Amino acid sequence: MRKEMKKLLSVLLTTAMTAGMLTGCGASNTAKDSGSASASTDGQKSATASSDGGTTTIDTSKHVDLTMYLIGDRSADFDEVYRKINEILEEKLNCSLNVEFLSWGEHSTKYSLLFSSQEDFDLIFTASSWCHYEQTVALGGFAPLSEEFIQTYAPDIWDVVPEMAWDQAKIDGQIYMVPNYANEFGQDVMAVRGDLMQKYGFDKISSWDELIAFYKACAADGIYASQGGPWYQYFQTKGYTTTGGAPKGGELVLYNTQNPDNLEFTYIAEWDGFRDYCLKMKELADAGCWSSDVLNSSDERQTGLLTGRTAGMIWNLGSCMTYAKQANADHPDWNVTIIDPIASQPKKVNSYINNGVAINVNSKNKERAMMVLNEFYTNPDVYDLAMLGIEGKHWEAVGDDQYKVIDESGYGVSNNCNWGWNNAKIQRTEYIENRTALDDTYDALKAAFESNIKADHAYDGFNFDSTNVSTQFAAVEAALGNYYDPLVNGLVDDVDKSIEEMKTALESAGIQAVLDEMKSQAAEYVAQKQAN
After folding, report:
1. How far apart are CA 270 and CA 123, in angstroms?
2. Is 170 helix (H, G, I), strand (E, B) or coil?
3. How far is CA 299 from CA 158, 188, 293, 395, 411, in A?
4. What is the pLDDT of residues 146-158, one digit of tens each?
5. Is 128 left (phi over 0), alpha (psi -120 to 50) or beta?
6. Which residues, in sequence order, are bridge partners of residue 47?
């Protein structure tokens, strides 16, 4: 049915374009581009395949300069790589792309400012819960993307992204991001110095108790274990995960993802498990398991491990592998490995909207921005550049679907926020000629993850829309700033007093209205799923 509808929409759209008018969220800009093109002398156009197998000619005779925001830090060779990407974009779409970064340490505060200040840009990385998707939609910051608009300006993306992903991206029935297409596990692991594990007598770290023992051993030896408390590891050991769209990147309200029959939300301020965790973190912080100045640090997640300041880092499996390799290249004697502190827990596969790209509602070139995203997502040359860097300098091809790293120091594999356009259909896998113990560990963990995927939970695809309680939601976020981070990192004098003060502040901010709205939306969401 979906494919038939796509064909019908495409035929109707092509007819409409023949008449010289497009419908959808990009209509005004399309007319603007067409008007500008009439005064152009180069007559350049771009032929884009439509979803029914035909072609739709889109006028690109007016050159435009686009800006995209990514998350993280600019690598040494980033500009060189993107100059080559721009050569392709100039030739195919008559446009160039400038890229700006919001670092890991600043995006939580600066992301929303891009929209409130109406900064002039076009594309931006986003993600459900952890990277401002629901919040920015609620603020009206992202352009809505109609199916007609996507089919016209990014027909290849439309054919690749599964229907489930588009459905996950909908808020109040409307799509606001292009989701990535890759299976990604919603499970953090740790890259840890193997030499220190051996020194402290640890053959493995596969449970919460073993992890805490390792943290204490690091502190006793005068080295920080990590750059803060292992909050995610804790609630995941209890079967919980974050709720999409909830305050604090989903962390303030959890649900038991391991039990599909449990449809209760857990507001952590009233959860005994949160108190137990905070008490344990105070014990670890007082012991010196991480810096007492961690809340004021702007260090990236990997900084502590790579500089030797910490014994490990917490992130997803792929990122831990990337930085473990980098650390071992610089310090072979560290023997950095990867551990899963909750190895027995069945693994959650993230929703497709855990990474994606949105268009700024104030973009003056929405159509061209969508066409550029189509290139990043489905053009193998652009895709390889953005993910791997320059062929012959950073990597070399092995067959049609593998790559071999030559030098990761200047760019890094999947290290420059290319995740928003992950595309499993064209993504290369690494060919490893001289395998190391780290490679074997990574492959074993990945295989263990894939063989132990948890059952689906109704809330795994749920994303809370805070529009109806936007005032209370903003007040809750503001109130959390004074209490939450100190608590989860054990940096308070009195845990019980701080939790009570946080609860009081959140109640005054309107948390109950947020929770009531969330429960109402979740009930409606589940009812719709059951009806389908």
Report:
1. 39
2. strand
3. 38, 19, 11, 28, 19
4. 999 999 999 999 9
5. beta
6. 57
